[in-house]
Amino acid sequence: MPEMLTSVWATPGLVWLMLTIGVAGIVRGFTGFGTALVFVPVAGIFLAPQVVVGVITLTGIASTSALLPRAWGQADRAEVAVLALAALVTVPLGLWLMARLDPVTIRWIVACVAALTLGALVAGWRFSGIVSRPMLIVIGAVAGVIGGLTGLTGPVVILFYLAGQSAAQSVRANTILFLAALDVVIVANLLLRGAVDWRIFLLALALAVPYFITSLIGQSLFDPRHERIYRWAAYSVIALAVLSGLPIWT
């Protein structure tokens, strides 16, 4: 055990990773989104892509487990099942691409996906049509590829699953349930490939501590009267994370 802990403390950029996941927790606490958008671009500076994906998905499983009971009762589980099954098929493709693409290329993909997502959020873009069954399959499939390749499991759902005809409560519950399922699918695939070892588990556990604490802080700081300020603060943090994670700096 001491050797395992020593290896975790020897993780490159551990202090920065803890600071980043802590900030991501605050952002998630008062906005409800943004963990991966903040953490993944910065983590890519210090960690290999498969480690980034493993850590963020394991942390995601831990963080969403507390939200699942309520979401399970409010979600349209049939819709989520379609999304999850589509992602189940395409996650291996994302992981296959991750294993073959150059880490710098993956960092550019992360930066582009995060920047496009941020731009759409800032612009207030939302899909306003009806989400049909084929569209659900496409959403799940694309989310599976991007999630497996980069660890960014949320952007596709954030941009395309928030249909105007759906109640906000249902959309939130569906999103929580789907992202939890996607994290489990990615971790299961990584385990089958032997790409997740005890070092990644311990690193995820170490990062989960500040993330959990700061998520509670962010939640306690939230005041609906100042939601616009919180969201713009979150957008600024995400933009800073994307810029700092660009491969041009290292």
Automatic annotation (TrEMBL):
Domain of life of the organism encoding this protein = Bacteria
Gene Ontology cellular component?
A: plasma membrane
Does ATP-binding appear among the keywords? no
Q: What membrane topology term does the record carry?
A: Multi-pass membrane protein
Q: By what name is this protein known?
A: Probable membrane transporter protein
Subcellular location, principal: membrane
Q: Which UniProt keywords apply?
A: Cell membrane, Membrane, Transmembrane, Transmembrane helix, Transport
Q: Where in the cell is it found?
A: Cell membrane
Which family would the database say this protein is a member of? Answer: Belongs to the 4-toluene sulfonate uptake permease (TSUP) (TC 2.A.102) family.
Does this UniProt record's set of keywords contain Cytoplasm? no
Taxonomy of the source species: Bacteria, Pseudomonadati, Pseudomonadota, Alphaproteobacteria, Rhodobacterales
Note the PANTHER family from the entry: MEMBRANE TRANSPORTER PROTEIN (PTHR30269:SF37), TRANSMEMBRANE PROTEIN YFCA (PTHR30269)
Where would you find the membrane-spanning parts of this chain?
Answer: 6-27, 39-68, 80-99, 106-125, 137-163, 175-192, 198-217, 229-249
Record-linked Pfam families: TauE
Which InterPro entries does the record associate with it?
Answer: TM_pro_TauE-like, TSUP
